[in-house]
Design a protein that fits this description.
Radius of gyration: 31 Å
Number of domains: 3
Structural class: alpha+beta
Shape: elongated
Oligomer: single chain
Number of helices: 8
Order of helices and strands: HHHHHEHEEHEEHEE
Distance between the termini: 44 Å
Strand order of the largest sheet: 2-4-5-7-6
Length: 338
C-alpha cells in the first residue's frame, strides 16, 4: 500500500486560485454570459494575485522585513492604487465592448472605490503572509520532532545491554588500574563517552560542562592512536550553567581526527576554542592540513548534517563557516544561547 502524499504549498495555491476563478465565473454566468463572465473572472483573479504576490513575494521581504517601513507603506499604497485602477478600468472596457457603449473616465468616488477594494485584498495578503509563516514554523517543528524521533530510535537500537557493557568496563578498569594506570584512565574515558551517548544525548539540552568533558574524553581516546601525539590546545572561556543541544560541537573535532591528522610526517597541530560572547557561543577549530591524505576523500556529510540540524534549531540565527589554505583548515560556529 502506497504512503499518502502530502499536498505541497504550490499545489494548494493552484487549487485555491482555480476555485476562486470558477466561483467568480459561475456567480456571473447567469447575468453576463459565458465570454464576459470568463473575462471578468480572469481579470479579478489577476487583480487579487498582483496585490497578494506583489506584497508577499516582493514588498514584504525586501522592505518590511528590512525595517524600511516608510518605503514599504508608500510602495504598498502605489501597488494597491495601480492594481485597483487597472482592475476597474479593464472591467469597464470589457463591459463597454459587449454593450457597445463609450469607454469613459470615472469620477473621484469611483476611483476611491477601486483603491479601497485593493486595500481589502492587501489586508488579506497580510493575513495570508502570517498564515504562511505559521505553517512554515509548524513544518519546521514537525521536521525537528521527526528527526529527533528517528535519532532516538537509532539510539535505542544501539543500546544493546548497556548495563552489561558498563559493568564489563568497570571490571576492566579495576583490573587495569594496578598494572597500567594509563590504560585504566582510557577505559574510564571510554565509559564516560558511552554513558554520555546513553544518558545525555537524548536530552534537548545538556550543560556545556558535560559537552566539553565529552570532547575532552574523545580527544584523549583519539590521541592514543597517533604517534607522536599531536599538539592540541583547547581554550575554554564560558560561564558555568550554559546549556546547548548535545553533540552540536562534535562534528568539527571528529573531522580533525578523521581527515586532518598526518600520520606520516607526524607534524600535527590543533587549536580548539570555545568562548561565550554576550548571548552567543563561539566554537572554533584550526588544524594543520594533512599533507599525505589517504585514498578516501572527505564526503562532507558530517557538515551537511550539522548545517541541517542548525537550521532546524536556530533558523537563520547562526553562523557556520569552514575553509582553509595550503597549511591550515579552520571551522567557525556561532550559535545563540537560550
Amino acid at each position: 500500500m502506497q504512503a499518502k502524499r502530502k499536498i505541497t504549498l504550490s499545489q494548494l495555491q493552484y487549487l485555491v486560485w482555480t476555485a476562486i476563478l470558477l466561483i467568480s465565473f459561475i456567480s456571473m454566468l447567469s447575468s453576463d454570459g459565458v465570454a464576459r463572465s470568463a473575462l471578468f473572472a480572469f481579470n479579478g483573479v489577476c487583480f487579487y494575485a498582483l496585490i497578494i504576490y506583489g506584497n508577499i513575494q516582493f514588498l514584504y521581504p525586501r522592505l518590511f522585513q528590512q525595517k524600511r517601513y516608510a518605503l514599504y507603506v508608500g510602495c504598498s499604497s502605489l501597488l494597491v492604487l495601480i492594481a485597483g485602477l487597472a482592475k476597474g478600468y479593464i472591467s469597464l472596457y470589457i463591459g463597454s465592448r459587449y454593450h457597445e457603449r463609450a469607454f469613459t473616465i470615472q469620477d473621484a468616488d469611483t476611483h476611491l472605490s477601486y483603491f479601497l477594494s485593493g486595500v481589502t485584498v492587501f489586508v488579506l495578503s497580510l493575513i495570508i503572509r502570517l498564515a504562511i509563516a505559521y505553517f512554515a514554523v509548524k513544518q519546521q517543528s514537525e521536521e525537528a520532532l521527526l528527526q529527533r524521533s528517528q535519532f532516538e530510535l537509532k539510539l535505542l537500537k544501539a543500546q544493546v545491554q548497556p548495563h552489561f557493557l558498563f559493568n564489563t568496563l568497570n571490571n576492566m578498569y579495576y583490573e587495569a588500574y594496578m598494572e597500567a594506570p594509563r590504560t585504566a584512565l582510557l577505559i574510564e574515558r571510554l565509559s564516560d563517552i558511552m554513558r554520555y551517548f546513553i544518558d545525555q544525548n537524548i536530552q534537548d539540552l545538556v550543560p556545556i560542562e558535560t559537552e566539553v568533558q565529552f570532547l575532552d574524553n574523545y580527544i584523549a581516546l583519539e590521541t592514543i592512536r597517533i604517534s607522536p601525539e599531536p599538539e592540541i590546545e583547547f581554550l575554554k572561556g564560558f560561564k558555568p550553567g550554559i546549556q546547548l543541544p548535545p553533540m552540536l560541537l562534535m562534528t568539527f573535532v571528529e573531522n580533525i581526527f578523521k581527515h586532518g591528522i598526518d600520520k606520516i610526517s607526524g607534524c600535527n597541530q590543533v587549536w580548539i576554542r570555545i568562548a561565550q560572547q554576550e548571548n552567543y557561543l563561539i566554537f572554533e577549530t584550526k588544524n594543520s592540513i594533512n599533507q599525505h591524505p589517504g585514498k578516501t576523500k572527505p564526503t562532507g556529510l558530517g557538515l551537511a548534517n550539522l548545517l541541517q540540524r542548525l537550521k532546524l534549531l536556530y533558523g537563520a540565527d547562526f553562523e557556520l563557516t569552514t575553509g582553509g589554505d595550503s597549511r591550515y583548515y579552520s571551522a567557525y560556529l556561532k550559535i545563540p544561547l537560550s
